[in-house]
């Protein structure tokens, strides 16, 4: 029921034609955020591995 109310309010605010465009934009933004998060995690893991190698060699 809550979802129906939210959808109704969204249609009133943005209009029925803008909803798919808005959803697409949100999806693209979410995808970009996920890619950025994965890239950051990879870089941190590489730095951690490099630091472990440096400290193990000492």
Automatic annotation (TrEMBL):
Query: Is Transmembrane found in the keyword set?
Result: yes
Compartment list? Cell membrane
Q: Which InterPro entries match?
A: TatA/B/E, TatA/E
Q: Where is this region: Disordered?
A: 31-58
Is Transport there in the keyword field?
A: yes
Recorded protein name is: Twin-arginine translocation protein TatA
What is the first-listed, main subcellular location in coarse terms?
A: membrane
The protein's organism comes out as: Natrarchaeobaculum sulfurireducens
Q: What PANTHER family does the annotation carry?
A: SEC-INDEPENDENT PROTEIN TRANSLOCASE PROTEIN TATA (PTHR42982)
Name the keywords, alphabetized.
Answer: Cell membrane, Membrane, Protein transport, Translocation, Transmembrane, Transmembrane helix, Transport
């Amino acid at each position: 029921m809550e979802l129906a109310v939210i959808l109704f309010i969204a249609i009133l605010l943005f209009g029925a034609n803008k909803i798919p465009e808005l959803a697409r934009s949100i999806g693209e933004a979410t995808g970009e955020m996920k890619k950025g998060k994965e890239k950051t995690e990879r870089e941190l893991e590489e730095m951690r591995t490099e630091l472990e190698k440096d400290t193990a060699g000492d």
